[in-house]
Amino acid sequence: MGSGDPASGDQEPGDQALWERAAEGDEAAFGELFERHAEAVWNHAYRLTGSWSAAEDLTSNTFLIAWRRRADVTLVRDSALPWLYTVAGNAARDEHRGARRRLRLLRKIPDVPVVSDHADAVAERLDGERRLREIVEAVRTLPRSQREVVELCLLGDLAIADAAVLLAVAEVTVRAHLSRARARLRTLLEEK
Amino acid sequence: MSNDFDLPPRRPLPDDVRARLRAEVRQGIAHRRPSRVWYAAAVAVVVLAAGAVVATRAIRQPADVRPAPATSGELTLDARVATASLDRCWAAARAAGKAGRLPPREDWVPLFTEVGQADSVVAATAAGKPMFCETTATTVTLSDPGAVPASVPAGRAVVLLHSATGLAGGVLGAGTAEPSLGWRTEGGESGSVSIRSSPVSGQFVALTRTDPARTTLTLIQPGIPDGTVLSAAPPPLLSVADRPSAAERTSPAGRALGACLAAAEEVVPEAEAYAPGPLLETGSYQVVLGRRGDRVLVCTTEPDHQRPGKRKAHVYPDFTGPQALPVRTLRVATLGAVEAGGERGKSRMPFAVDVPPKAAKMTIDFGIGTSAEVDVVNGMAATWIPENIDILPDATVHVVVRDDRGTTLYNGSLPLV
């Protein structure tokens, strides 16, 4: 199985073909989709949660939800990734609303530890994590429509056109939401 | 697009994380998989349900009854477990003078069994009425077949038993699509598990491992993400410690363990039988370990930032089991985590380890230039992870475990978290 690159060579089936096989119950096809997209979903989950351990739980949860709903989904431009990002975003919100499931915290990493005074690199990384958590918190305060496009386009680096298809809205609507969200986020983050 | 917010760069997915994710997804899929063997088991169940005489004879001759293959995600009947458990429930009911409220033992027909790490449950019918018999090494719990409603419509469920071990058993209405049982505690913890029900009686079981008195159960179905709240289960007909075993609760660690297990919303079978291990305390945080044979747990107590002025306790049973690893890290959450409302920079994380029973000391090198030595208690060791350590998901520490004569029992690395 591959190591996570969504692009495939000439010999490899596309996401759509794999998804159709998975929808018919082919676990191997779903496994291939997992290997192809696990890394991207994991990184996206980290940006959604600000925690690598929570990201791990969110990633497995995302793929399990995807498996459960595989027959109901139409992929965007032959890629499962946009939809997986949407599932991850919804699951992250559910988790947040659900006040955390204890078992999902078993591998939890503590909040930013005291910065060690001998490693500038560590300090930089911790600053980055702190910054990400602030962003995560700020994103959670956005109206739903803005939050969805931020999660897909800003955190997930999806193209606006793909997000528009996924959210069933016009591209101009996505741009408008994104613009307002960026402004709101800047304000929120400058207040920190 | 995202650079203007200084988002972190994407990282390669470590192999061990990928392997864990892959295993979790595969396991989750297996739990949801309808299988041919499931139908085979169902046929066997129908045969059993067709006549109590046949069923009784079959169950009383376990050698002739092969349990259904133990494939993940299926309902199976382990005849030996069923017979032993039902006999024990019957004996306990007689001893308690409650046998008169039950159909005769000969009219009990087991449908399927679920065997856990510390308890097992038999879903059975008693003169045609659904009934659940749960046993641990020390306790017996039997639902009341007299409290069963006449019927359960499609899309609905009734809970007939929610035992002190957090086991829920009930009846699902026929034709309910993709059902899951959800639970939520007063403290806000929640979870869900997909449920499979007997084609004969609609009975299902699920492990919530939460205190019934502080848990709300829901039936979750497609299109009803929040679920339908289920009425609380009626009291069990019988819940007794027929083979009592109580561990020490007078030492500081014993008292702490008893108090923590009693306060936690999660419940553990045979909690009273867990012997205390190391006790860690710093500020308002407390961590204590416990052991019951091969099973170990970590119990934590800390301020409840969601409910100011109160404290909260959590139990972390070791789901991994002893396996082949002589020494292994026990998973436990951060105390005072910011996400739970804790103050930034004030959280602490324990490092808890299960070690061989004859171990006496453990030396831990966190890789920051100093090492710590801790006492091993009942095959368990624990210490606080230094606050200035750089904790990453794949971080490891080096440990050396020795017995009381200084002989090295283990010398190697362990995952930090």
What this model shows, in words?
The complex is a heterodimer of chains A (192) and B (417). In chain A, helix 5 (120-140) crosses helix 8. By secondary structure, chain A is an all-alpha fold. Chain A is globular, with a radius of gyration of 18 Å. Helices cover 66% and strands 0% of the residues of chain A. In chain B, 17% of the residues lie in helices and 35% in strands. In chain B, a hairpin with a 3-residue loop joins strand 1 (108-115) and strand 2. The two termini of chain B are 34 Å apart.
Mean residue pLDDT of chain A? 75
Q: Quick one: how many beta strands of chain B?
A: 23
What is the N-to-C succession of helices and strands of chain B?
HHHHEEEEEEEEEEEEHEEEEEEEEEEE
Main beta-sheet annotation of chain B: 5 strands, antiparallel
User: What spatial form of chain A do the alpha-carbon principal axes imply?
Assistant: globular
> On the 0-100 scale, what is the average pLDDT of chain B?
82
Strand content of chain A: under 5%
What is the strand arrangement across the widest sheet of chain B? 1-2-3-4-12
According to DSSP, the number of beta strands of chain A is: 0
**What is the oligomer described by this structure?**
heterodimer
Structural class of chain A: mainly alpha
Stretches with pLDDT under 50, minimum 5 residues of chain A: 1-9, 96-122
Following the backbone from N to C, one meets helices and strands of chain A in this order, namely HHHHHHHH
First-residue to last-residue Cα separation of chain B = 34 Å
Distance between the termini of chain A: 44 Å
Strand content of chain B: 25-35%
